[in-house]
Design brief:
single chain; 304 residues; alpha/beta; 8-stranded mixed beta sheet; 52% helix
């Protein structure tokens, strides 16, 4: 029942990408006599529209063409596509949430408007429902509104929060939060950071300072460093991930706004290009629309 529920969430959230793929794909198959040059180019165009990237699209087509199937048969082609797509998600051994010694620190980073603070709220609720004691740290001290926002979420979820004043040193707030989490036997300390452009090196260095501050108390932390990525951003999203990973080392990606785009193929590009697992995915506005990323459900929802 659980897998059915997850699959239904993925189908609902990925509907725009699914419809974009299957509508054109069905037209292509209906007129297909063989997977020749013209058909290959059409299939490639469909995949590019879904934002899987040129290299990934070429690899998918290559594998489908090699498959020992009747390429005019919808079911066989669908099965071959799903099998090929699943092979791009090769990081399953790194996909599970890793929480180390208490308090485990989970750092959320990302550019402005990516859905970072909302993702933190949903992630916090998920952990709380699993019986974990959660604390929030409001380290986005650049905007007074951000401090207020994280405080509102903490109140709604009945979760303690440590926050600084506007203009305070984010690393100092992180230090205070870590001290508080240690004293209160918190399972997971979730740190919200200011949205920052990945092209601004001095802002990226500030993230390093937060991490180094945490490591003064516990060299094994943070347990996780999540980049929250707006799935509508395409190639720019990959550039963000590359830069953040270069500066602070990412352990996973949280893909948001999947329900609002027809470019869900970005998930394939992240893992294949960067070697960073997609760990969570936002498939809608509700709390329950935030869930662990499941490659099988993802591929099934895209093709069927």
């Amino acid at each position: 029942m659980m897998m059915v529920s997850i699959l239904n969430k993925f189908k609902k959230g990925l509907k725009k990408t699914h419809d974009n793929l299957t509508t054109v794909f069905s037209v292509l198959l209906n007129g297909l006599n063989s997977l020749g040059t013209e058909e290959t180019e059409e299939l490639e165009e469909v995949l590019l529209q879904a934002d899987v990237g040129l290299e990934t699209a070429e690899k998918i087509i290559e594998e489908v063409k090699k498959a020992d199937i009747d390429h005019k048969n919808h079911n066989e082609m669908n099965a071959a596509l799903k099998k090929t797509l699943k092979e791009f998600f090769y990081l399953d051994d790194k996909r599970a949430l890793t929480l180390k010694e208490k308090p485990s620190v989970v750092l959320f980073v990302g550019v402005n408007g990516s859905g970072k603070t909302t993702s933190i709220a949903k992630f916090s609720k998920m952990l709380s429902e699993q019986g974990k004691k959660v604390m929030l740290a409001g380290c986005d001290t650049f905007r007074a509104a951000a401090i207020e926002q994280i405080s509102v979420w903490a109140g709604r979820l009945d979760i303690p929060v440590v926050k600084g004043f506007s203009g305070a040193d984010p690393a100092s707030v992180a230090y205070d939060a870590h001290e508080s989490a240690l004293s209160k036997n918190i399972d997971c300390l979730i740190i919200d950071t200011a949205g920052r452009q990945h092209t601004k090196d001095h802002l990226m260095e500030e993230l390093k300072k937060i991490i180094n501050t945490i490591r003064k108390k516990d060299t094994s932390q943070p347990s996780e460093v999540f980049l929250v990525l707006d799935s509508t951003t395409g190639q720019n999203g990959l550039s963000q991930a590359q830069k953040f990973n270069e500066f602070i080392g990412l352990t996973g990606v949280v893909l948001t706004k999947m329900d609002g785009t027809a470019k869900g193929g970005i998930a394939l590009r992240i893992e294949k290009t960067l070697g960073i697992p997609v760990k969570y995915i936002g498939l809608g506005e509700e709390f329950d629309d935030f869930c662990e990323f499941d490659p099988d459900s993802f591929c099934e929802a895209l093709i069927n």
